[in-house]
Amino acid sequence: MNYRISPSILSADFARLGEEVSNVIAAGADLIHFDVMDNHYVPNLTFGPMICEAIKPYSSVPMDVHLMVEPVDDLIQSFAQAGANIITFHPEASRHVDRSLGLIKAQNCQAGLVLNPATPLHVLDYVLDKIDMVLLMSVNPGFGGQSFIPNTLDKIRALRLKLDEYEQLSGRRIAIEVDGGIKVNNIAQVAAAGADTFVAGSAIFSQSDYKAVIDAMRVELAK
Ligand code: DX5
Ligand code: ZN
């Protein structure tokens, strides 16, 4: 299995963001996760496309942009132009989910839907053909450093079954990313449930040695 670790810069030092991104890529990050919050869809405020654009020269790996904004559509082109490779959004924040996915694809980005802990999997029905990745939230969105919600493991297993069925019919494999409370001591369980892409913010950026954390996660994933 080709596992990917996507460090969330939400927990990085914003005064030294370019350096932080270079360092975490040197430490083994496969993607860089950008948490975009608007103080409307979620009760917190982070950054817009200007930051992605500023970080682009430091990011030799794909930029994984998680939009926690409402509405969604107006920002898609700006983030794509700022260098986003993957853009995901929350379906309840878009009035026309199929259209928003189409706008992302039209920018030649990979597209994904983000499901909150209480959002059922059936929101994915009828749009799987437009999705490259499903992002399952294992905390409620808005803040880094929260604890992993254990029910997510059942949800990952159910989603893996659903996506395996779809892969058999279509030949397309859709990735499962999990976001929130991922640590060295639970990443193996999350992978065993069927996830392949792991967001980690506080687990990585709270430590001084990013490589040690990412290496420890890979050891767990290899078990
Ligand atoms: C929460 C964000 C997450 C968060 C993860 O809304 O989507 O990406 O930063 O942070 P940790 O790994 O600290 O839970
Ligand atoms: Zn996120």
TrEMBL record:
It is an enzyme of class 5 (isomerase). GO terms for molecular function: D-ribulose-phosphate 3-epimerase activity. A divalent metal cation binds at H33, D35, H66, D179. Pathway: Carbohydrate degradation. It catalyses: D-ribulose 5-phosphate = D-xylulose 5-phosphate. Its cofactor is Co(2+); Fe(2+); Zn(2+); a divalent metal cation. Keywords: Carbohydrate metabolism, Isomerase, Metal-binding. Its EC number is 5.1.3.1. Binds 1 divalent metal cation per subunit. Gene3D superfamilies: Aldolase class I. The active site is at D35, D179. Substrate binds at S8, H66, G142, F143, G144, G145, D179, G180, G181, G201, S202. Pfam families: Ribul_P_3_epim. Belongs to the ribulose-phosphate 3-epimerase family. Catalyzes the reversible epimerization of D-ribulose 5-phosphate to D-xylulose 5-phosphate. HAMAP family: RPE (MF_02227). This is Ribulose-phosphate 3-epimerase.
